[in-house]
Amino acid sequence: MEKPKSVSFILLGLIISLLIVRDANCREYPVKPIKLVVTSSAGGGEDLEARGIAPFLEKYLGTRVIIENQPGAGGKIAFEKFQKTPPDGYTLI
C-alpha cells in the first residue's frame, strides 16, 4: 500500500516542477528589435526577400526587424558572426 503513495508523491512533485519551469520561461517576446542576418550583399536575391518579409514580421511581432548584410565567403562570414551571438532568439539568419 505504501508503494502507490510514494509513486503519487513523485508524480505530484514532477508535475509541480514542470509547472514552475514553464512559468519561468513565459516571458514576453520580443522586447527588443530582431536582427535578420543576410548572407548576400544589398540588392541580392536574399536581401530582396528579407526586405520583403521584414514589414510582415514587424507587423506580426510588434517590433523592428533590422536587416544586416554580411556578404562574402559563400555565407561563411555571416554564419561565423551568427554563431557568436547569444542564443536568445533576437538574431536570425
Q: Care to describe what's here?
A:
- This protein is of the alpha/beta class.
- It has one domain: D-Maltodextrin-Binding Protein, domain 2 (3-Layer(aba) Sandwich), CATH 3.40.190.
- It contains three helices and three strands; from the N terminus they run H-E-H-E-H-E.
- The protein has helices spanning 2-24, 45-61, 76-83; strands at 34-38, 65-69, 91-92.
- A three-stranded parallel sheet has the order 2-1-3, with helices on one face.
- Helix 2 (45-61) links the parallel strand 1 and strand 2.
- It is elongated.
- The model has no long low-confidence stretch (mean pLDDT 80).
How would you briefly describe this protein structure?
The protein contains three helices and three strands. With 93 residues, it is an alpha/beta fold.
With strands numbered from the N-terminus, the spatial order across the biggest sheet is 2-1-3
What is Rg? 22 Å
Q: How far apart are the first and last residues' alpha carbons, in Å?
A: 56 Å
What is the fourth-level CATH superfamily?
Answer: Bordetella uptake gene, domain 1
Outline the biggest β-sheet. Answer: 3 strands, parallel
- Architecture per CATH nomenclature, i.e. the level-2 architecture: 3-Layer(aba) Sandwich
List the helices and strands and how they pair.
Blueprint: H1 2-24, E1 34-38, H2 45-61, E2 65-69, H3 76-83, E3 91-92
Parallel strand pairs: 1-2, 1-3
Task: List its salient traits.
single chain, 93 residues, three-stranded parallel sheet, elongated, D-Maltodextrin-Binding Protein, domain 2, alpha/beta
